[in-house]
Amino acid sequence: MELFGRHFLTLLDYTPEEILVLLDLAAELKEKKKSGVPHAYLKGKSVALIFEKTSTRTRCAFEVAAADLGMHPVYLDPQGSQIGKKESIADTARVLGRMFDGIEYRGFGQEIVEELAACAGVPVWNGLTNEYHPTQILADFLTIRENFGRLKGIRLVYAGDARYNMGNSLMIGCAKMGMHFVAAAPKAYFPDPELVARCESVAKETGATLAFIEDPREAAKNADVLYTDVWVSMGEPDEVWEERIKALSPYRVDKTMMESAAPHAIFLHCLPSFHDLGTTIGKKIHEKYGLTAMEVTDEVFESPASRVFDEAENRLHTIKAVMLATLGKEDSYAKR
Prior knowledge:
alpha/beta
């Protein structure tokens, strides 16, 4: 299966078999990392990391993954490049494509990363856009497989705002891998119908199911995985908080919702999380609205069912797999 030279923009572009190859490679690289086995298969290569939106996990995962593979990563923050300001996206892509072996982009519209990919001449990886977050889904799926030994047939319930990158990407990933995806959300917060239709078409081939349920307790019944994300994304105005809190508070993952899930259920969150008052935003929301937690309670976040830090670590291993598979011809690491 040839993944060399491919972009990684959305899981819609990858077959179930290709996704499994990436997960298998990630598990292998994770074992090497844990065992202290060197795996600098891409020594001498360089990658550009464009971050129009800041990050902890995505940036660290890409930088450490690149270093482990023997590559030199160059981080470009919003002040560190002219992309879209003094230089067009197409021109930026053509410049960076002549200097680097691969380019990561984390920022705004999916059309930006798509244009980078069209013009760069080297593999481009989506570190997050408004619409999709495919590297996160690989980390989620590696975590799920580590806990259940499989993906097919797993019931994953996403509670909250399912209209954007996490809801979209989890729905796509579940459809691809024959899983059962449930969006627990108000009807106005369901994913785009056109994307739902595409995923339903995929699901017919894989045995997956998609469901959209407004009652949070009903949605959580028999879930293997309960998943949530912050209610307001980076770059959205402060006034959005009041609307989201009013609409989404019934979908907070709490002890009662976890009790509706299967006894073996695990909790996942892509992070960061507002589960206590340990953040500036958390304190601000508490002062204004009186909340001590938002999308998940501290009780669930810190519970034995929580796998959020395993999930965060797996960003490193799955991102490493994506870069190795797309930048390294298989014969360069086949005897790994």
